[in-house]
Amino acid sequence: MNKTALQIIRFVVLVLLQVLVINHIRLGGYVHPYIYMIFIMLLPFSTPKWQLLVLGFALGLTVDLFTGTLGLHAGATTLMAFCRPSIIKLVSGNQKFENITEPNLGQLGGIWFFRYALCMVFIHHLALFFLESFSFRLLGQVMLRILLSVPVSIFLIMMILFIFKTEKRRE
Amino acid sequence: MYNLRRFIIKHHFVILFILLEVISILLLANSQRFHRNRMVNTTNDVVGKIYEWNSEIGYYFSLNSTNEQLAEENAMLRQKLSIMYDTSTCTYNISEGDTLYKYIPAQVVNNSINQANNYIIINKGAVDGIERDMSVISSEGIVGVVTDVSRHYASIMSLLHSKSLVGVRIKESQELASLKWGTNNYRYGMVEDIPTHIVLNTGDTILTSSHSYIFPEDLMVGTIEEFYPTAVDALNKAKIRFATDFATLRHVYVIKNLHKPELDSLKAKFKQNE
Question: Which are the contacts of A91, defined by CB distance < 8 A and separation ≥ 6?
């Protein structure tokens, strides 16, 4: 399939999954999982850095339109996209990827991907929950939200990626 | 000039990042303060439609309990009506001039309860006569205030919002107080600024006050769950259980105050005189 078409489908499906399903999960007042960032996480390694930012901003803004919080997800996802190149360097260390065009679970392994997802999701949630409270007044509450939501988000993200992986093999 | 261009090209990643973050924070600060963003308005119809499709799927599963709730409300209203008029002989037609408030029924197509600021989207919009600042209630109690209107949909700032503030009245003592969300739980809110001489008990009823320009008087808000007397502060607080169950909200009524233009023009005159 055309690479661009695949990216567009991924974008739409992830946003709809987030706003129609995941946002309605109720696990007490502190757990708010987010998975739509998978789109930014899976972009090819060769994506120009400025495109990462623009796509991150557009993705966040789309989610914002649904939740009525203009600028909230846009800000958090742009920050995550900004950190992506550094995180990839940090997580990979001296590893060199040959023939690998994009971060994927199959070729890079579960451990690499888990560390990558952990850093990305943590930065996203940190920015998101601090922007949401718009002050450092509720520091304890915001930290609790982050610490409780990050594991749930990562669990959901890894699950979605595993499902996606097996489907690819069948083709 | 050449140096500037080279600088921008060299650091385009950081510059673009800062630019996008500044836009995000400005948008966020604006939407928190005014709730009137053109961009939200123009796209709300698309967002509303998607939410409506989605809610139609889930609608069938809750039909039974929804019907029951509406029937109960009908029975209650019939009873009230029978107190006021002899229903068997009286054929009373309501015309616009007789009532102060017009009720517009609507259905909730999207509702959040677990964010720091929660919004509800309903399937009635400008075409149906919905305007900003109208109040929204359910058959159980008050729900929120309309903040944005598109052609066919409207978004409502629910009571579960950090900026929500409603003037309320304690039913027993007629004393005024104010209602905020203040908790992270969708079932409870906080009543603040309660005069010191008032002692509240669990189960006391809280209604809307006539001082709120948005809600009609004497609508059900909730019941007191826990009273917190403060020795230091001059005013007391109490935890309140909302009458409305936000988790299962389905049918709501948008209330149009037919005297609002009159009230607004009076308020504008005050401002001019100041």
Answer: A112, A115, A116, A119
